[in-house]
Design a protein that fits this description.
Distance between the termini: 7 Å
Shape: globular
Order of helices and strands: HHHEHEEHEHEEHHEEHH
Largest sheet: 6 strands, mixed
Radius of gyration: 20 Å
Number of strands: 8
Strand order of the largest sheet: 3-2-1-4-5-6
Strand content: 15-25%
Helix content: 40-55%
Length: 286
């Protein structure tokens, strides 16, 4: 692609990955809304394929998994049978993150059921080459999925939280109060001090801040499931390869100064921070 066209595409993708909606991106980049949607679908789907083919044989030792809620078209309480058949209603994004490198190892955007959980857990089991300590919340779906995917080659523990209710809080917006937290070993011999979901839960905030479709109380939600999946794949690749992480640093050789690196650099998948032009060219194979 020529430089002007590459720069224009990079500007659109940058706006989307930095938390702007489709319409805001179209205004900022002075282009049609359909242009933005088509580019997001093209690059987002290519990101998912590229990740599937290239992010594997990882040296991770500590992995955390979690699910984040969103919806497509309308919330579950308002969905009709016809809309449900089109993929509308509640939607859950399952993510797995390396606690050390902060790399998003894999993700799956679907329902919150046993079949989806099985598919999700099968993927990191394929991408990891070491015996890992795996942590999740107390969702019961994980128990069987982890045993089937990893067999005996995992140390798996859960963080189980008990919630109460603050009757003085505004119920519509305030989350339930966590009254107790305990950890328990499920499979293998996990170190109790390392059973945690703190990093993956913090990643949920990154997602809601950086991917507009996940922002609560907004009209920027996804209208189609295919757009929702493509946008998240785009964001995940941006997060792994383009966005320097402030807790990950590398010595620059200049009087011992250090500079932030990306999760992909920390994980050994890249040797520099990718530009948006480079990300687009790489995943599209240009």
């Amino acid at each position: 692609m020529n430089e002007k066209k590459a720069a224009a595409k990079a500007q659109i993708i940058r706006c989307i990955c930095e938390g702007n909606s489709i319409q805001a991106t179209a205004r900022l980049c002075d282009c049609a809304i359909n242009t933005v949607v088509k580019l997001v679908l093209e690059v987002g789907n290519a990101c998912a394929d590229w990740h599937s083919d290239n992010v594997k044989d990882l040296d991770s030792l500590l992995v955390q998994v979690d699910e984040i809620w969103s919806f497509v078209g309308c919330k579950e309480k308002n969905v009709t049978a016809d809309k449900k058949a089109e993929g509308q209603g509640d939607c859950w994004t399952w993510t797995a993150i390396d606690s050390d490198s902060k790399l998003m190892i894999t993700w799956n955007v679907e329902l919150r059921d046993d079949s989806t959980c099985r598919d999700f857990i099968d993927d990191p089991a394929f991408r990891l080459k070491n015996r890992v300590q795996l942590s999740s919340d107390g969702l019961g779906l994980y128990n069987n999925a982890v045993k089937i995917a990893f067999g005996p080659n995992v140390d798996y523990g859960q963080v189980v939280k008990t919630y109460g209710e603050d009757f003085a809080a505004q119920k519509r917006y305030s989350p339930a109060i966590c009254t107790n937290v305990k950890t328990k070993a499920i499979t293998g011999d996990p170190m109790d001090s390392l059973i945690s979901t703190s990093h993956v839960e913090r990643q949920n905030l990154n997602i809601r801040m950086g991917c507009r479709r996940y922002t609560r109380l907004t009209n920027a939600f996804s209208k189609k499931l295919t757009n929702h999946v493509a946008t998240f794949s785009l964001y995940a690749t941006f997060y792994n390869f383009c966005r320097p992480h402030q807790t990950l640093t590398k010595e620059s050789g200049d009087a011992g100064k250090r500079y932030p690196t990306t999760p992909a650099m920390k994980a050994g998948l890249a040797d520099h921070v990718w530009s948006f032009e480079e990300m687009i060219e790489t995943v599209l194979g240009n």
